[in-house]
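User: Could you walk me through two proteins back to back? I'd like the raw sequence and the structure tokens for each, with a short line separating them so I can tell where one ends and the next begins.

Assistant: Of course. Protein one, sequence then structure:
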Amino acid sequence: MTHDDDDRTTFLFYAPEREPHAWGLDLAGLGEALRESFPEVRYKVRQDRTHQGEPYLSFWAGTDEGTEYDRTATVHGRDCVMLSDTTAGEAAPFLLWLRDTYLPASDLVRFSSEPAVERGIETDWRLPANGDRARVADELRHHLSVVEGS
């Protein structure tokens, strides 16, 4: 099965398991970084009622091209950003921004997806430390095709 940009899912991007807080994720700081980098942004740091009041960032960001990013970031367990209802092609520019602009090092991004979680696949997929939008999107699509083939 091939994945085109019509396939919408939830992607999870997170720090390596051996370095769960390697991103040094500051939730309010991430919200401000989003505000500085995207033309339209709304965010709020909230308390998670299901995880002993752990803080998380709820955010929405819009691009000039009309792409919307909506979801959360958390530091519960390990630094993590989740994007919902998005395609590989839409997620790629956000991921490039996260990897190349926000994170302290470009080799710190692991990822998974809702289909992988639903199938009990706990493998950390590594995002290449370099590569353009097309390569990142292809990596996300490859992940989805492997997951759905298993």
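----
Protein two, same layout:
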Amino acid sequence: MEPLFLTGKRTLLYPQTARKVELLDNAIFEKIQKWRMFPARWELETEDFHGKKISYRGIKYTGSPEMVFWCYFQPFFDHEIPKVLAEIEKECSNKNLPPEEFLKEAADLLKVMVSRLWKEIAKTHQILKGNGFPKVEDLRDMSGTISAAKEKIDAEVAALLLRGTPALHENNPSPEDILEIKPNVMGIGINFNAFVRWAIRKWKGI
């Protein structure tokens, strides 16, 4: 099974990030293992992401069980990966750290996770399909699914990085920046530098 770690230079938050990703990896892997034990007695008791009970007894892995298997895991990835990234973004905010470097590191580790887990899901299908005796032709190519999962991770990181840009406030002076109340003849002065910056942005359509 593909190891869950990153090589090369790591950030100071990597240990915390790794623990969060490992917890999710373990949770999903346990669900894979539960399905993998299905052929032992042809019994399965589990719940889907929404808490709906899944129960099979005296039935083999064909038809309905196979269809349920391939729909079972995706919601765990779709709902839990954003939570991990959001936790890391929040941790950066609490520590007053720019989040980009740390979120991208987390994304790289999550990409390793989805790759190794979807490959294990494919191997589990192969085992179930062969009634415990896997056949080469039953091993599905998961490259498309893995690629799509990695794109979703990148999209989630991009969305998180759109939050709050401190420079935005600095580059957009408020009316108080332009009109200044200060001691002078009329009691109100004009900050011409702020006015010029504002006028240039308006002219450029910024």
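The longest strand covers residues 43-47.

Let me know if you want the two compared in more detail.
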